C-alpha cells in the first residue's frame, strides 16, 4: 500500500504582500520521485523553501508522515528526516569538503559515520577533494557536495532544487544516476528540474506550476512527451 510521505494542502505563500503560491495541493508517496516543473519565476523554489520551513505559509498545511509540520522550524524538519539541497549548489565555502560533510552529519546525528562513507561512495569524485575548500570546487563538484551533505543527515525525504542547473552533461548523468539510486533505496525525492528530458526520465509524478498555480499534476506514465512539451511551453 502506498503511504503518503508528504502532503501539502491549500498552501498559499509569498514574500510580504507579494503572493507567490496559490492554493497548492501536493501528495508525495513514500519512495517515489516527485518532480516539480515550470518556467523561471513561477514559484518552484518558494514551494521548496516553504516545505523546508524557510518560509512560513500565509495559509495551508504541510504534513510529513502524518504529522502537521507547518509550524516546525527548519532544524526540526531536518532532524525528522527532511534534507534540502537548495538551488545554486550552496555549500559552506570556507570549509573543506570533509568539514562540510562532518558539520552536517554532526548537526543532525541521525546515524553513524558510515553515512559519510556512503555519501563519498555515492559521489566518488569528492574522495580526492576531501581537503579542498568547498568554495574552490567547480559547479559540478559543488553540486555533488551539496547532495552528499544532504545525504549525511540520513534523510527519508530529499529535496533537490535544480541539481543539474548549469552543469556539464557528464556530471548531469552522474547526478541523475545518483537520484535514481537514492530513490531505489527507498528515500522519497522531491525534485525541481528544468531539463525536460532529465525530469521525464526520473519522475514518478510530475507537477507543473505556472504563475504560482498548479496547472498539471499526475503520474509520469500518464503524461505523453507531447503533452509535457506543451505544458512546459506555457
Ligand atoms: N526573497 C524574496 N523576496 C521577494 N520576492 C521573491 C523572493 N524570492 C523570490 N521572489 C519572487 O517570487 C517569485 C517566485 O520565485 P521563485 O524563486 O520561487 O521561482 P522559481 O520558479 O524557483 O524560479 P527559477 O526557475 O528562476 O529558479 C518570483 O517573482 C521572484 O522574483
Ligand atoms: Mg528556483
Automatic annotation (TrEMBL):
<dbReference type="InterPro" id="IPR003439">
    <property type="entry name" value="ABC_transporter-like_ATP-bd"/>
</dbReference>
<feature type="domain" description="ABC transporter">
    <location>
        <begin position="6"/>
        <end position="234"/>
    </location>
</feature>
<dbReference type="Pfam" id="PF00005">
    <property type="entry name" value="ABC_tran"/>
</dbReference>
<dbReference type="GO" id="GO:0005524">
    <property type="term" value="F:ATP binding"/>
</dbReference>
<dbReference type="InterPro" id="IPR027417">
    <property type="entry name" value="P-loop_NTPase"/>
</dbReference>
<dbReference type="InterPro" id="IPR052156">
    <property type="entry name" value="BCAA_Transport_ATP-bd_LivF"/>
</dbReference>
<keyword id="KW-0547">Nucleotide-binding</keyword>
<keyword id="KW-0029">Amino-acid transport</keyword>
<keyword id="KW-0813">Transport</keyword>
<comment type="similarity">
    <text>Belongs to the ABC transporter superfamily.</text>
</comment>
<protein>
    <submittedName>
        <fullName>ATP-binding cassette domain-containing protein</fullName>
    </submittedName>
</protein>
<keyword id="KW-0067">ATP-binding</keyword>
<dbReference type="InterPro" id="IPR003593">
    <property type="entry name" value="AAA+_ATPase"/>
</dbReference>
Amino acid at each position: 500500500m502506498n503511504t503518503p510521505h508528504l502532503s501539502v494542502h491549500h498552501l498559499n505563500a509569498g514574500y510580504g504582500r507579494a503572493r507567490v503560491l496559490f492554493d497548492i495541493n501536493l501528495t508525495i508517496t513514500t519512495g517515489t520521485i516527485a518532480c516539480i516543473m515550470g518556467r523561471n519565476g513561477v514559484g518552484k523554489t518558494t514551494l521548496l523553501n516553504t516545505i523546508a520551513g524557510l518560509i512560513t505559509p500565509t495559509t495551508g498545511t504541510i504534513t510529513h508522515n502524518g504529522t502537521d509540520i507547518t509550524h516546525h522550524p527548519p532544524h526540526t524538519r531536518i532532524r525528522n528526516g527532511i534534507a534540502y539541497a537548495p538551488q545554486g549548489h550552496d555549500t559552506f565555502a570556507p570549509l573543506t569538503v570533509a568539514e562540510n560533510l562532518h558539520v552536517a552529519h554532526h548537526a543532525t546525528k541521525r546515524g553513524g559515520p558510515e553515512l559519510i562513507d556512503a555519501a563519498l561512495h555515492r559521489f566518488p569524485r569528492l574522495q580526492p577533494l576531501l581537503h579542498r575548500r568547498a568554495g574552490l570546487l567547480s559547479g559540478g563538484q559543488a553540486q555533488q557536495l551539496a547532495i552528499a551533505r544532504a545525504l549525511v543527515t540520513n534523510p527519508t525525504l530529499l529535496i533537490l532544487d535544480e541539481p543539474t542547473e548549469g552543469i556539464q552533461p557528464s556530471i548531469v548523468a552522474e547526478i541523475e544516476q545518483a537520484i535514481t539510486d537514492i530513490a531505489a533505496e527507498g528515500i522519497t525525492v522531491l525534485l525541481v528540474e528544468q531539463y525536460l528530458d532529465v525530469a521525464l526520465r526520473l519522475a514518478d509524478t510530475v507537477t507543473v506550476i505556472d504563475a504560482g498555480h498548479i496547472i498539471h499534476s499526475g503520474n509520469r506514465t500518464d503524461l505523453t512527451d507531447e503533452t509535457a512539451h506543451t505544458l512546459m511551453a506555457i
